[in-house]
Design a protein that fits this description.
six-stranded mixed beta sheet; Periplasmic protein
């Protein structure tokens, strides 16, 4: 979803917002992200355009920051809402210098830290999740033998 509310009279450059080292010109919401939004974030405004509009507003206001300093895929909004995003180079948008702009592809919403305490430390949460899944698989494998 491109920014519908920005008027670009007499400019030749597409509208974009800088996030880290990326210049985001478009936001794409996946089906999985929309389903997670409905389950974990909000149940009223659940359309793709509603979610993308909210993301644009947060991006323009500088409310989206990286969850970890070194990793580029997990982000938070207002230090509460955690989501995973990937970036792809836009094939049609460039800035005035010819540098490519990016599309932010929102993969999933993990939830709010204020509601789910495990999200405060994702590395520990994911290692626990992998361990519990592995143990479940081992246990099920023993039952089959």
């Amino acid at each position: 979803m491109k920014d519908k509310h920005t008027e670009r009279w007499n400019t030749y450059e597409p509208f974009h917002v800088v996030l880290g080292d990326k210049r985001v010109a478009d936001i794409i919401i996946t089906n999985h992200a929309r389903a997670r939004w409905t389950d974990r974030v909000e149940s009223e405004k659940t359309g793709y355009s509603d979610i993308a509009q909210y993301m644009w507003e947060c991006l323009k206001e500088g409310r989206i920051i990286s969850y970890y300093r070194n990793e580029q895929d997990v982000y938070t909004i207002d230090d509460d809402l955690v989501f995973v995003a990937e970036f792809a180079v836009s094939d049609k948008d460039t800035d005035l210098l010819g540098q490519p702009l990016h599309k932010m592809i929102v993969v999933t919403f993990l939830g709010r830290m204020s509601e789910t305490m495990e999200l405060r430390d994702l590395k520990t949460y994911y290692s626990w999740l992998r361990h519990s899944r592995r143990m479940t698989l081992i246990k099920n494998n023993r039952k089959r033998r």
